[in-house]
Input
Amino acid sequence: TQLLEQSPQFLSIQEGENLTVYCNSSSVFSSLQWYRQEPGEGPVLLVTVVTGGEVKKLKRLTFQFGDARKDSSLHITAAQPGDTGLYLCAGAGGGSNYKLTFGKGTLLTVNP
Amino acid sequence: SQTIHQWPATLVQPVGSPLSLECTVEGTSNPNLYWYRQAAGRGLQLLFYSVGIGQISSEVPQNLSASRPQDRQFILSSKKLLLSDSGFYLCAWSVGGYGNTIYFGEGSWLTVV
Output
């Protein structure tokens, strides 16, 4: 069974601070996705990374896929209250392209 | 563009009553379809997935069942709900192949009382 461990589970910071959340596994994934979810809504895709070592930027968000494709990180610069939400990573691979393995998420609160 | 819609958004059902949650996808053909459950706003548990009409794979033994009567329709059902079936249910779709990005519906809150 493939597992994705996300850390930290909870993060509360002040507006303007930087933060990094991590997604780690002992398994290799063909791709990895990051989602953001607000309460009572479905997760919304932020980015998909497919190449080991790949770095993608989405405004103040920077996503990196590990060289061995076992881990990923999400860095947010100058966090804003609008960044508050549950951040989920999900990996595809391990013999099935139809299913994703989800981490349990990092619940981020950005205080004004 | 592709859209996904699930309903109802919220429902409160008594223990022992039946359940039917519906999900439809527009703007794509032969999608992979999924039902997830999310407890306490945290991780997602895959319940069922389908790669074609009438093809259902169950991931977790439970009190629920799924059906795919049409290419872009996915239904989650139960004959008799349990208290433990309460949660946030999410329908999702993807197209098969490398990358396999999944797109989620708005979610359905189920409270079994």
Notes: DSSP finds no helices and eleven strands in chain B.
